[in-house]
Amino acid sequence: MKQGKFITLEGIDGAGKSTQLAWIAELLQRAGLQTVLTREPGGTAFGEKLRDLLLDGSFIVYPETEALLMFAARREHLGRVILPALAQGQWVISDRFTDASFAYQGGGRGLDSGELSILEQWVQGTLQPDLTLYFDVPVGVGRQRVSQGGSMDRFEQEQADFFQRVRAAYLDRARQFPERIKLIDSSQSLAEVRAAVERTLQCVLNYG
Fold it and tell me: Do 135 and 184 form a contact (C-beta atoms < 8 A)?
């Protein structure tokens, strides 16, 4: 059986990536591909419990604790959802993956990228997404979108300078891995963003 493809969506809070998830799946399904939609932190029953803790604004935790919990959820996610689906020929589309750890815990929290790389290697070995769509938007635009969505989680409650660091880390990752990480200008209209996503999927993965 042919191995499936692994697509991840990344971006700061308010970038609009989550709204694209189901649409991308539908696009691929129309091309005759089986898809699995998932997210991080989360994706498994255990991971969703950790997600609740990580997003709970009533907790203050050390950055190292946050990173370790993220990778703990990721290990379960890989073993129980991502790898089995790929082995069955399904295409996995995940709302965030390890790039988010380098952006949020690395850029945002200031953790050493070398230490995060050690966790990355330990948890996922050589596995990397086949394609990462990075939805880029100015921090001010992202913050405005988040504020219109009602109650905010622990990350969404962070100040603008935190998200400036997160965005800078994402852009740095995109420069480091240009073959895998493709930047989508998420400040455009929905139609323009979707057209850019479709072009990128066809160009990089040739799914049609």
Answer: yes
Contact 98, 74 (CB under 8 A): yes
pLDDT at 208 over 70: no
Residue 79 vs residue 57, higher pLDDT: 79
Task: Note the pLDDT tens digit of each residue in 5-20.
Answer: 999 999 998 888 888 9
Name every residue whose Cβ is closer than 8 Å to that of residue 60 and which is 6 or more positions away in sequence: none
